[in-house]
Write a structure and sequence with these properties.
23% helix, alpha+beta, 3 helices, 10 strands, ten-stranded antiparallel beta sheet, 196 residues
Length: 196
Amino acid sequence: MKKMLFALAGAVVFLTFIQTIQAVPITGAIGFAGNANLNTDTAATATTVVAWSGATTANPVVHSDSGVIAGLIPLGTQIVFSAPWNFTVSSQINPFWFVQGTPGINFELLNSTFVRGVLGGTPYVAISGIGTLNASGYDATTWNFSVTFQDPSTVPSANTFTFSASQANVPDGGTTVMLLGAALSGTALLKRLLMA
């Protein structure tokens, strides 16, 4: 009987341990807006963002957010972007952006692609890609992002931009398989102990 109780207590501790190692991803979506100074007068020929700014602030600001990220980065928060950024070359940038005054929250750009076009007579360039969002207390989470630069008619010295990002739907890197394997191993061990 003691062996059975010992095995049962061990199984409870094991299952409790499994519950504590589950991943805590950063979920949701976020959007920023502001101005970007490009290396040419128009998005039709630009290759590099020379500097970033907000419409009325030193840096771009959060204009929309949802999910876990909304609790980490509230609306109106200033975001500092990396500059210069040659968006025609796909390269890793760490950090690509971070939250001003809040250490531990940043986005690492992993790769990107761009397209150019004209919409309603206004040139634009759109960049999309993937990166890793990091925040203290959460697992590094893969996010998709897109940035669009367009030529504004009212602000000739800067090109307006929009940035949006959301959690990517990618495999979890084996965490689920690891937890399933651990649970099955624990069940087999418990069965062996109960049969002895």
